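Newbie here. two chains, one complex. Structure please?
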Amino acid sequence: MIQDIALFLQTAIIMGTPLLLATVGEILTEKAGHINLGVEGMMMIGAVTGFLVGFATNDPLLAALAAGMSGFLSSQIFAFLTVSLKANQLVAGFVLTIFLTGLANLIGSNYGNATLSSEFTQKIGAVAVPGLSRIPLIGPALFHQSIIVYLGIFIAVSAWVYLNKTRFGLSLKVVGENPSFADDAGIPVAVYQYVHIGIGGFLSGMAGACLTLVIVPRWQETVTAGMGWIAIALVIFATWNPSRAIFGAYLFGALKGLAFKFQGTSIEIGGASLSLPSQILDLFPYIITIAVLIAITLGKRRENQPPRWLGKAYFREER
Amino acid sequence: MRGKKKFAILAVLLLILVMGFAGCSGGSDAGADGSAGDEPSAGASEEASADAGESTGAEAGDGLAPIAKENIKAAFIYGSAVGEEGYSYAHDLGREALANEGYEVTYVEGIPETEQFEKTVRDLINEGYNVIYATSFGYGPYVEKLADEFPNIYFNHATGTVTKTNLSTYMGRLYQSQYLAGIAAGLKTESGQIGYVASFPLPEVVSQINAFTLGARSVNPSATVNVKWTNSWYDPVTEKSAGLELVNTGSDIVIAYLDTMSAQIAAAEKGAWAIGCSTSGAKVLPDVYLTAPIFNWANFYTKNVQDIVDGTWKPDFQFLGLETGVVDIDPLTGNNADGAAEKVAAAKEAIIAGELNVFGGEIKDNEGNAKVPADGALTDEEILTINWFVEGVNGKIEAVSE
């Protein structure tokens, strides 16, 4: 039983890692006042780029960087449309997803049968920390994982420190809350927006590569299968807080496994056996997100609110 | 200022439009690219459609007329992308076999089970295609409608249920191969637990799982088959997650009745064995791959087209077993238990000879109710509508609305 739970937690954490990367990226983007619905697409382009580079070079670091760069460049299309041209952010992000999903599937269409070398998968696969990985219950989850898991936690914590303990983070929050105040204070609003949309794209690209290099690990058509949308939901769930995103991402990762745990089990109530349809469990992430959204709207706690300027274009001349 | 803003809005609209188009063509280009090699040059296609038109005129009263080999234009419609493995890929190998014999063939992939199928087929017929192979179950209503509308076109619907004068249906008795794969798994498993990842609880899928379980228990009476549903035909990450869950909870062999090998890859990572589906997985997972129930659709398609040429094509329901070679078992790899290959070969011979009926003999469901008496067997009708698991399956059939 203990072993069961330990392995379940291990799976939950690795499944939650791409969500964590994409969520932290989207939090930084939204903190700059921009909501980028292109996460799913940027994950796709990162997934295919990361896989192709990993396949060709056998170098995990290079593959991750290339995936990140592809996401970064894609996000700059969004940044140009929404920051410079003041386009509607929802439409621009959505179109970005459609465009990049098609593009990624086109690029990857000839690599469905390609497999990564065992040398590569060993470099990036799960490594057991001697001793620690044998701790009951939490050992495998925390100390028998791919390097990407630790990288994900590191990035999330760094993002939290950046937002809450540095001047840059403070300025970023001002940009997202009220860009004209930021402008008055001499903060270069557009630069902040471009940079943080870029970081968001970079992390989304890496999240996609995490799927094709570590989790699946192969290129498969439309491999993200909606994960980017869950990441956007997770931003709300985490109330724009990167450290809460760690918990949220692993929880959502666990829900996927939990759906399988519940399959075939039924609860006896008064002689009638009641089983929980697995489709209901698949809905959980979204139901929880809506519940959190309602809770923070009703709760009105300052630190849990979305950036006030989120989704709006900033016209400097019209202040 | 206002002018500048207007310009900006225009520029944005333009960019979005361009990106939108690029996105769309990105998707469909993949299909067009793939089939371009098989498409005839414009001239040839015109000629062929003119020919088809002539023969239609001459034979209109009689309905279906034989088509000369050089005038046959066969089109395959797949529900998913062909890819490199799985269900559509298996059909596509059959298409390639026709192409190699000099038939004019094409394919379209990733066509959903909606009006889009109807439109696609209309376009193909307009281009002169006169033999249609619709490979996905859900095309049913549209195939029936089109068959009525185009009485001179040969329609063939895989896994279909309705036949008409020009509409034939065909499917493989893959469950027989599943039974054989079950034997290999039953001999190999040490924990006595085998994981089975499947899409939806449809009769077609349930019959596969049942046959597999019966095979496993024929050599290992205490073996259990744990079933996990993914509620999707295609979702690599969920499949992987299901595979991990199965191995984590004690299964030491994983098989999936799906289009990708994600679940089996999960098994490999965790040190469990893998059984493929529809096509061989020997290349992808050489170290842990045992075998796979497979299709050799080439055997069906070459005969079917030959029947059209000879004028012996008949609209009927063809349920093709091991004896036709359409379904088979991938040769067992060296990873299998000692003696497994012999046992599988013996069972295969017995099935072909008619001595062994997979769904014959005493069968109980997994709640202990007797379903088949010792001297009985399930009829084809019962196999195709089965909605209960045999004893030894650890899983539940939920109602599906699909």
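Moderator note: Residues 2-36 of chain B form the longest helix (35 residues). Chain B has two domains: 66-172+297-324, 174-292+330-394. Thread marked as resolved.
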